[in-house]
Input
Amino acid sequence: MAKEKYVFNPETLIYDAVDASFKTKVKRFIPYMVVGVFLGVAVFAVLAFGTYATPKERLQAQMIGKLKTNQKLLNKRISDASSTLQNLVALDDSLYRTMLGEKALNSSIRQAGTGGSNKYEDLERTDTPKEILESFKNLDKLVAKMNVQESSYKDLFKKSLANMDRLQHLPAIIPVANWDLKRIGSGFSPRRFHPILNRWRPHKGIDLVASTGTHIYSSANGRVKEVRYSDSFGKMVEIDHGFGLVSLYAHMSKQNVKVGEQVKRGQIIGEIGSTGLSGGPHLHYEVHLNGVEVDPVKYFFNDLSPQEYKAVVAQSQSIEFCME
Output
């Protein structure tokens, strides 16, 4: 027989019998059951929807986050390296090969080694993340293009040795010393504003701004073709370098050479001035190839790194007025 339970009643100071029927027990259990169900659902939601992570899972999440960050950094480095390589390719095709009379490399040669059979089967078979797989592919493409460029430079180096005399006659230096150069003025352009004539017209050279009396140097070996005064160019000198190349130096304050004189690259041929139609002391410098004016900046390869070359081009092209 079940024992009866009693509870002390402080108001009556006697023990009252406790109703221990099944119905009463159920009523008492319901609140606990509701709370239990609620807690169970809450725990299930946390685990099911990932709002809770174990210490191991948190550590894994941190590692995954670092890997993704490093992956982005790697892709950025590959992209930067590709941009640098493109600059070298542009210089190779448009400048170095032109100087040696060589044609630009065919695009199919530039892309050599980046196609063919699938060499990433092992990575694909092991479920390597597609981002990492793509980085492998981009890196391999970059290496293949770099190998082609390395081969091109080796080939050009051999040819340059055989064309040493021609290279000495290329206008390959800035005719005003870098340490005297205050700034690059207007560059080669089909349209620049003339400050004296007050109108737009082609500018077929580059303006190198420096103080009056600054030395001007021959940009290559050659023979002095002209030493004269021009209404527009003022005191000027022209040097024939052979191979269809002629350099022109204008607005000089002083001419230090004579017609027919043989000059060497780096030899002083005059001084900067502001003679002729000039807006201030500077050297207007031109390069002619087979009688046609070409951008002199393309020949400054002896004095400028690829980064400096880009900076000079950008500055010279950003100025809308010229000095003469």
